[in-house]
Design a protein that fits this description.
α4 packs parallel to α13 and α8 crosses α9. Strands 1, 2, 3, 4, 5, 6, 7, 8, 9, 10, 11 and 12 form a twelve-stranded mixed beta sheet that branches. It is globular, with a radius of gyration of 20 Å. With 437 residues, it is an alpha/beta fold. Helix content is 39%, strand content 16%. It folds into two domains: 295 residues, 3-Layer(aba) Sandwich (Rossmann fold); 96 residues, no CATH class. Belongs to the peptidase S10 family. It comes from Mytilus edulis (Blue mussel). Keywords: Carboxypeptidase, Glycoprotein, Hydrolase, Protease, Secreted, Signal.
């Protein structure tokens, strides 16, 4: 079918909406719209132009992809992590717009403002997700707005399950760029606390929180026993059952730890999702994965003044389909993509970055370090020298990094799963280093 933008309520053709310029809502230039990526599948994008005095064609364009799957880039990523305003409409001092333009995409379809007309249009694996994104990016970069960014350095930054999606998307995008199917200056990707090897991440939960005094040895053995059951399911190819068992492990961990926050082990009582109890295992799992990304305040904002400003169709409710996005990915959820990351390092000219928050549990640093040992570049990486990164204001150590060839790893201190939210200064310094290479 023809690639076209579905522009709600009076938008301009060819994928372009007039920038709003200065307004009472945002004092930035921006564009936004829908792409019909498949029949009955509509994906929303929102572009914010950089605040840099150099101008948008002199700095990179960063696409941000949220996790879940089902989290919203336009919502959580924008207002809770790296956009120009926070959820209270106050300016964010550590917005990434200082360094680059930002393209938020509600991905997969069903996340945020993206939506499907019927359940058979939801994606079921990362291959479908990558295919949809190729339609969106091809359409975007061929639009009047996107043509201005064809030669601008393009990066994909992400978080959590967004990393799994980004790996698959990056492989497809690189191949399409080299074959001439899409005109884009794709330079690199940064995988933040990313769900690259679900087994390695989950297996490391018990020992990690034991050493941090969050459980005792009795709790350790309970979690470990449930984890072994999950790994046997995976070995037997029972992927969907393994996803369900993963939820069981979370239940045990939550009980044994007296409700630790999966996204930041020091933020006790800080997870709104943890307060939404349910007698249904699937609902509890979705609450933990998606609930933290759609807090009541954020939901009210996105379904109120933001929805009106962006001309979102009345029938579309932000985040209403996010639970189904997760459910339809259940078969693929526990499958690793380490091989894709390895391919990107070994066979492309892309800068491949992994960054991990020190206080994250759900994608804890030890699990990330475990799957890194499986990469072909690991021996050279192991022998490389780790360097400190300093906070620009306190001058204290705020992170460490190690680089070899086109591969880098950043350890972000004082941060959990949502690195830009927890340690904005360190995240901004990291971004500055990555895009300046």
């Amino acid at each position: 079918m023809a690639l076209q933008l579905l522009i709600p309520r009076g938008g301009m053709p060819n994928g372009h909406l007039p920038s709003l310029g200065s307004s009472n809502f945002f004092d930035i230039k921006q564009d936004f719209g829908y792409v019909d990526v498949r029949d009955k599948a509509h994906m929303f994008w929102w572009l914010q132009y950089t605040q840099s005095m150099q101008g948008y064609q002199q700095v990179p364009l960063i696409m941000w992809l949220q996790g879940g799957p089902g989290g919203s880039s336009t919502g959580f990523g924008n207002f809770m992590e790296l956009g120009p305003l926070d959820v209270n409409m106050n300016p964010r001092n550590t917005t990434w717009l200082k360094l680059a333009s930002l393209l938020y995409v509600d991905n997969p379809v069903g996340a945020g403002y993206s939506y499907v007309d019927s359940d058979d249009a939801f994606t079921t694996d990362v291959s479908m997700i990558a295919a949809d994104m190729m339609v969106l990016l091809t359409t975007f970069f061929n639009s009047p707005t996107g043509k201005n960014f064809q030669n601008v350095p393009f990066y994909i930054f992400c978080e959590s399950y967004g990393g799994k999606m980004t790996a698959a998307i990056s492989r497809s995008l690189y191949q399409n760029m080299n074959s001439g199917k899409i005109k884009v200056n794709f330079k690199g990707l940064a995988l933040g606390d990313s769900w690259i090897s679900p087994v390695d991440s989950t297996v490391n939960w018990a020992p990690y929180i034991l050493t941090n005094s969050i459980i005792d040895e009795k709790g350790f053995y309970k979690i470990n026993e449930a984890t072994l059951k999950m790994t046997k399911m995976i070995e037997g190819g029972m992927w969907k059952e393994a996803t369900t068992q993963w939820g069981v492990i979370q239940d045990i961990l939550e009980t044994e730890s007296n409700g630790v926050n999966f996204y930041n082990m020091l933020a006790w009582g800080g997870s709104e999702a943890g307060l939404k109890s349910s007698n249904n295992l699937k609902e509890r799992m979705i609450n933990r994965m998606i609930g933290a990304l759609r807090t009541d305040k954020l939901t009210a904002l996105m379904n109120g003044k933001v929805k009106k400003m962006l001309n979102i169709p009345e029938k579309v409710e932000w985040g209403a389909q996010s639970s189904k996005v997760f459910m339809y990915q259940a078969e693929d959820f526990m499958k690793p993509v380490v091989d894709i990351v390895d391919y990107l390092i070994q066979n492309t000219s892309l800068s491949v970055v992994v960054y991990t928050g020190q206080l994250d549990i759900i994608v804890a640093t030890p699990g990330t370090e475990k799957w890194i040992t499986q990469l072909g570049i690991y021996k050279d990486y192991y022998n490389a020298t780790r360097q400190p990164l300093y906070d620009p204001y306190t001058k204290l150590t705020t992170a460490f990094y190690k680089s070899v060839k086109n591969f880098s790893v950043y350890w972000i201190l004082d941060a959990g799963h949502m690195v830009p939210k927890d340690n904005g200064n360190a995240a901004l310094e990291m971004v500055k280093r990555i895009i300046s290479k």
